[in-house]
Amino acid sequence: MLIFWVIAGVALLLLLLTVVFGDFLDGVIDAIDVTGGYLSSTVVLSFLAAFGIVGGLVLATTDASVLLATLAGVVAGAAVGAGAGVATRALTNGPTAHQITSSDYVGQPATVTTSIPSDGLGQISLVVAGQSTALAARADAPVPTGAGVTVVANLGPGVVKVATTSTQSL
């Protein structure tokens, strides 16, 4: 019975360390992964924790054999591991998993927050992938504060070219 509790304890400790410090076992898991990316350290550690806990509980609370406790642990571990795999994959591949780059700004509507002079920089505010961003902006003609614009080009880090919404081109 002790082996089940040791497996559960070590797995829970490693799972906690993975949550706090990042997926430090990922390289090891990648080396043995044949599932196309569904296997991760979170899945393996969740399986082992559930296996140990359920196996230990079955032995401690019933007159079941070690074989039955092991089978119960495998079934519970598979269910918890599969759930952890689905949840981890959904979070990893979710809509916020995309790293926003300057190319994502082009074509996006924005609002001028600091007027843009014809020969200088102003500021715009826009929302991309649910994230509000303020950028320096240039335009071919003066654009007043509060005007609606569309980002038409990237001019450099944090600087874009905009066109007023009514003309849509420069």
What do you see in this structure?
This protein is of the alpha+beta class. The mean pLDDT is 84. 26% of the residues are buried. The protein is 44% helix and 21% strand. It has 2 domains: 2-97, no CATH class; 102-164, Beta Barrel (OB fold (Dihydrolipoamide Acetyltransferase, E2P)), CATH 2.40.50.140. The protein has 4 helices and 5 strands; from the N terminus they run H-H-H-H-E-E-E-E-E. The chain has a 5-stranded mixed beta barrel. It is rod-shaped, with a radius of gyration of 27 Å. Strand 4 and strand 5 form a beta hairpin.
Strands, helices and their partners?
Elements: H1 2-21, H2 26-32, H3 41-61, H4 66-92, E1 109-114, E2 122-128, E3 131-138, E4 148-156, E5 159-164
Parallel strand pairs: 3-5
Antiparallel strand pairs: 1-2, 1-4, 2-3, 4-5
Condensed summary:
By secondary structure, the chain is α+β, with helices and mostly antiparallel strands. It has helices at residues 2-21, 26-32, 41-61, 66-92, and strands at residues 109-114, 122-128, 131-138, 148-156, 159-164.
Task: Work out the number of β strands.
Answer: 5
In spatial order, strands of the major sheet run 1-2-3-5-4
**Overall pLDDT metric:** 84
What is the SS-derived class? alpha+beta
- From the alpha carbons, calculate the radius of gyration and give it in angstroms: 27 Å
The domain count comes to 2
Number of helices: 4
Distance between the termini: 75 Å
Main sheet specs: 5 strands, mixed, barrel
Helix content: 40-55%
Order of helices and strands: HHHHEEEEE
